[in-house]
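Forwarding the complex inputs:
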Amino acid sequence: MNDQEGNNPERPDGEVNKPEGEVAKVKRGLQALAGGWRKCDTTGMPVCLDSQFFIRVNAVFAVIFLLIGGLAAILLALTRWEAFNLLRTDMFYRVLTLHGLNMLIFWILFFEVAILYFTSTTLLNAKLFSRKVGWVSLVLMVVGAVMVNWVIFAGQADVLKTSYLPLLAHPAFYLGIILVAVGTLVAVFNFFATLYTAKRDRTYEGSIPLVTFGAMAAAIIAVVTLLHGAVVMIPTFSYSMGWTGEPDPLWYRLIWWGLGHQSQQVNVAAMVAVWYMIATLSTGAKPINETVCRGAFVLYILFINVASAHHLLVEPGMSSSWKIWNTGYVMYLAVLASMVHGFTVPASVEVAMRSKGHAAGIFGWLKALPWRNPAFSAALLSLIIFGFIGGITGVTLGTQQINIIAHNTLRIPGHFHATVVGGTTLAFMGVAYYVVPLFFRRDFVWRRLARIQPWIFAAGITLMSFGMSFAGSMGVARRTSDIAPAEEAYGAVVHFFLAMVGIGGVLAVLGLLLFVGLVVATVLFGPSNVGRPMKCWGTAVDLGSKGAVRKGKGGSHYTPGTVVLVGIFLTAFVVYYFANWRALADVWPVR
Amino acid sequence: MNKETKKPALQRLMDNPWLLLVLGVLIPVISYTIWGWIEIALIPASPY
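Prediction (whole assembly, two chains):
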């Protein structure tokens, strides 16, 4: 075992917080309540009680919607697995709508609001700007999400997440989405107002921390996203009420993807911020170059949102200039940012590990990482799945020429399940292993299960993503409940890949249910850690004098292991990219 | 010359969330939304 465990606190500086007496505990609690603060028993950082309340409530709702979306996922997996083909076509669309909205919108947005409140208060030593604004946001989001789910369950919104016109759902569906969007926008306002008051009151010195900066990038991207949501959903709601005429379907798709795809870019920025945070908490890693890391977030803010144009690459109404500009020249600057983060996160971990004495060879530090810490394993698996599967497929499928052989096939969900589920959801699960002990103040139960949960979820989602990608490469369409009408055209081997989708999906949902079970059982029955540090998940061991002889080789930026890993990534990228050009040439010979 | 003015331009940009917010909204809205909206508006109506 390489990582430290037990009751020692998760403090990078190694300082131990001693348990306090009952009287002192009560006294301190009363003082904290009077001032709206408490001191974190693990990190020693101040925790705004208003912020803590909204972090808790938003996290609880996030997990509820994750559970609903997950239960829908298992039905879908057992439908696309041809051996079962569980759902009838009409039910398939209803469940797919339920799955898409809960997983891609509600689970993610509620959790991201919790992240915004955490990064703008605890990390800046600041109080939440307004409890009332927090309540307004929460009520709007909850009412909207409940409305949408109710309408879907009632069978009045079988329009999928995209709800492309001229498909029309019950007006409550659109109104619910508008309420969720406005509620999230209100939470984003609370975040920015907290940033403003923190700077005004000088609660921190210098620049805001990198993790807060990443959350700010997510918040800015969210503003663009939610504005598009309002622009497209208000006239569509009006149309569904019979007040105005039908919006143009192409215009709808243009603006809707300003909501639909950009919301996933919010996830990317928040996920990367979580990677940095977990790397620091579990290994003591510090960004190897803050300016470069922040610069990469700036590239996200400026350029990542234009990637929505991918979804319109086969629209004859849009010009090639618009498509190439938005999916090529500009968008690649955001891809560059992801590759920067994909290097700096593992590089900062390698530097930290080598400075702790784990400097043997190129990959000696990998062996010594705290693999049994579920937050760390979740973050690292998230980075690998996001980069190697989601990132490589995303850039390739987003190339205008290649898109024509992949559009509307299962390759597309094969890509975004690797980014949003294997990437963002897994990273958020990882940070929950700290959020629950630190903010709900209960240590996790069933810790052995918790240690394997990220691996089960990651294995399932990887298998499913591969199955989708390979089946899609053979032409299998997305958003269909079975392949019967075109079975002969695909070939027999496609059944194997669809079985991979089913088995991987079931495995991923088992990992998800395990996560939900762990969180719920911990919040309800976990041992309290009030007055003492949270029980440690395991951090990187500092070898001290034992490892000192190996310190210092190559200086503070000596990262040969990460360089090799990045080389493997770039090689995989090039091979996959040009294999797709070859596949395009096969179906579209140029003579 | 005070310390603030000595900061590199990129650092000043990164320390200014309001400017980042404005640029982060303007660039995608112009590049993706307005340009795309104009293209759709200019598609000639079908005679049929």
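Chain A has a mean pLDDT of 91.
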